[in-house]
Specification:
This protein is α/β, with parallel strands linked by helices and about 140 residues long. Helix content is about 25%, strand content about 15%.
Length: about 140
C-alpha cells in the first residue's frame, strides 16, 4: 500500500480501520474497513461516530464499493470515505463522484496523471452524490 491520497482539509485519521465484525463488537471505535460483499447498511446507526470508513476494492472490476459509497453519502455520512486496494487512476473520477474523498491504492498513482484524469471531463451524464448537474439537465432544464 502506498500513502493515502486525500481530498479533504481535515487531519488524517490515525486509528487503523478494523473489520466490520470487530467494529460492531466495540463501543468506541471510530474507523472501520468494509470488505467486498459486506452490507454497509449495518453501519447506518453509527455514522455520527465514524471518522473513517475504508472500502476495499479487491479487483479493479469489482464495483460493489461504488454502491457502498453511494449508500453512505446518501444517508448523511460526512467523514472520510477511503477506497483502498486495486484502485486505478482511471477510476478516481468515478469514485469521487460516488463520494470517496481519499484513496489508498496498492500501487502508486502518478500525481500528474491523476490531475489530468480528474479534470478531463467538464460534463457528466448521470447524477450522483457530488451534486453536479448532468449534461441533459443543463441542456433541457
Amino acid at each position: 500500500m502506498v500513502e493515502a491520497i486525500r481530498f479533504r482539509d481535515d487531519e488524517p485519521h490515525e486509528e487503523p480501520a478494523g473489520s466490520m465484525d470487530s467494529f460492531l463488537d466495540q463501543s468506541n471505535a471510530t474507523a472501520v474497513r468494509i470488505e467486498a460483499g459486506e452490507d454497509v447498511r449495518q453501519l447506518l446507526p453509527y455514522l455520527e461516530r465514524l471518522a473513517l470508513i475504508e472500502v476495499d476494492f479487491p479487483a479493479f472490476g469489482d464495483g460493489r464499493g461504488y454502491s457502498a459509497a453511494q449508500i453512505l453519502r446518501e444517508q448523511g455520512y460526512t467523514g472520510e470515505l477511503r477506497a483502498s486496494g486495486d484502485v486505478l487512476v482511471d477510476q478516481l473520477a468515478y469514485m469521487r463522484r460516488c463520494g470517496f474523498d481519499s484513496f489508498a491504492p496498492e500501487k502508486p498513482i502518478d500525481p500528474e496523471v491523476m490531475e489530468r484524469s480528474l479534470g478531463r471531463y467538464e460534463n457528466i451524464y448521470q447524477g450522483t452524490t457530488d451534486q453536479r448537474s448532468p449534461i441533459w439537465k443543463l441542456r433541457h432544464g
